[in-house]
Design brief:
This protein is of the alpha+beta class. The chain has 5 helices and 4 strands; from the N terminus they run βαββααβαα. Strands 2-3-1-4 form a 4-stranded antiparallel β-sheet.
């Protein structure tokens, strides 16, 4: 698996506090789209991030091939609604992940391997 963070940069640092009705409606559609991506288990996490400059949107995406995340970025409804939103695609190097909860539930190592490989 490959992990990526599409980072959505808003048009200005005070967004969404000073968002217009049109921008907020587009943001709501974007959020609804991301809920579907999360439900499809492509997005591991979705959340706005705060830093000293303002906020930006982040999604941790778990895909087999980088092309899959590029389609997600290219199809972003918020960017289509307002091209002032910019999307950067960050690649996450191999992650160290916590063990699957099944390991702690006493499953055999073979069952754990099957879960790990999607069987």
């Amino acid at each position: 698996m490959a992990y990526f963070v599409p980072r959505l940069q808003p048009p200005r640092s005070r967004f969404p506090q000073d968002g217009t009705a049109r921008e907020m409606a587009a943001l709501q559609r974007h959020s609804d789209d991301l809920r579907q991506v999360a439900a499809a288990k492509t997005a591991a996490a979705v959340r706005p991030m705060l830093d000293g400059e303002g906020s930006w949107g982040s999604v941790i995406v778990d895909v087999k091939h980088g092309q899959e995340v590029q389609v997600l970025v290219d199809d972003d409804s918020l960017r289509h609604a307002d091209p002032r939103f910019r999307q950067d695609l960050l690649t996450i190097p191999p992650l160290i992940l916590r063990p699957h909860p099944a390991v702690n539930a006493g499953l055999s190592s073979q069952a754990h391997q099957d879960l790990k490989h999607g069987h």
